[in-house]
């Protein structure tokens, strides 16, 4: 695809960059349409994003845009596309650019120019009567925009600062062709069907309350899922040689000053006064792990020291950014901190990768791996960084893992490996991470005595697999559409007596299952059996139903309805129960 660059030249771009250009051009075309329909509108930022595009708009008092207005805006966009306007570009000096924008009444663009570096090039793109300050590149003609759709409207502060004016953000999507848009709409409908907030409410897994925005309430069924997931997590920590710890939720300001969070992360932390001193609710668990390491002298023989913590953390998120279990203010981090010698980097990173990839294989998530290397604002010696990066590369190569190199995008305290999961809807989530850290061991003056008697500083590895239990649970709800595998299901077996005559037998069967460790419920309501079956299947989404009529009672059997096959077979309970227990123990599905 040929595009127009801001120096005026035209060239082909790689296929992976096409969507970005299409969406960026769609933002300009949308803005032009809105300007035609709302002549007094002022425009702020209008970029392409990973999933589409948006434009932030300042509307005159009394005017607003809602989703009801989308058909008119889309119709005007189609008109602009049909006009086949040519995209043109030009460059102005800073002074001329300011005058140009002032003449057009573009106050947000004028302010934006003031934020640019003194030597920045200031370029513009024009199609028809519409002009936008932009770095491009863009399509050649508006007719090249083949498929688009407006998707939502929300509020957004100018420059993301809550002290600034609230603007109207219009979101949209754009694709190469109508087939891609149709597929997007199919996935959108699937996403709505799988929405973890909707399923969570139906299955009574969790709830939110205005009494605590962003602080999830786990309901009984949700706790069943969470506890099963936590048990799996604990078993995996034991299998891979981690010690489990728990650090306090509230710690003193001096600790967060030592770690650097007080200076660099305070706006996202909740603070309180205790005994007239500043304390903070922890946003992360690593400083506490450093204190555990430092609690007694360490030798090279103690390393690696592998401390796992399912730590309860709190971070302040803007209320408008909160989203079910995906974006919360309170979450339990699947966390671990490894303290190692430089020579142990490759072995321990390899071992950690085996753990994280085992997680994703268990739940069927495909993933991609990214290695991020030393940024410009890094700390630590060249030797430390070279050894660390080489250790990570060697670990990836030892496992035969394909990875993308992301030069210069590591943390300032060390290089990292990130795991990007793809869910059933094609969305990507950054969950797992392995980060090497030279900074915190330095800040906390951590030491170990080496084999030659000298004191050395350990390297710290930050490791997460699920990310947070909250977000991962939300992902699992959508991945399984609430139909959890038996080992994870809140109710593993639902016993359905056909009538009052078989309730006593139903409770006897349930008691045997419960004694065997099965999560079981009995539906004793005076409802028709067909209704009970439909509810167990569509609302509770149970893996197995036991339908018990007089025949089953008299034969001392159970009719097992399997969710996977939707078939019902009559079985001896003592024959079927071991099969069920084996399925749960092996965590099949």
UniProtKB/TrEMBL annotation:
The cofactor remark states: Binds 1 zinc ion per subunit.
Q: Which residues bind Zn(2+)?
A: 286, 337, 462
The cofactors it requires, by name, are: Zn(2+)
Q: State the Gene Ontology BP annotations.
A: threonyl-tRNA aminoacylation
Reported EC number(s) for this entry are 6.1.1.3
Q: Which InterPro entries match?
A: aa-tRNA-synt_IIb, aa-tRNA-synth_II, aa-tRNA-synth_II/BPL/LPL, Anticodon-bd, Anticodon-bd_dom_sf, Thr-tRNA-ligase_IIa, Thr/Ala-tRNA-synth_IIc_edit, ThrRS_anticodon
UniProt keyword annotation of Ligase present: yes
Residues forming the Aminoacyl-transfer RNA synthetases class-II family profile domain are 220-485
Which top EC class is given?
ligase
Q: Which SMART domains match?
A: tRNA_SAD
GO MF entry, a single one = ATP binding
Cell compartment(s), UniProt:
Cytoplasm
- What Gene Ontology cellular-component terms does the record carry? cytoplasm
Catalytic activity line of the entry: tRNA(Thr) + L-threonine + ATP = L-threonyl-tRNA(Thr) + AMP + diphosphate + H(+)
Do you know which HAMAP family this protein is assigned to? Thr_tRNA_synth
The protein here is known as Threonine--tRNA ligase
Q: Taxonomic lineage of this organism? A: Bacteria, Bacillati, Actinomycetota, Coriobacteriia, Coriobacteriales
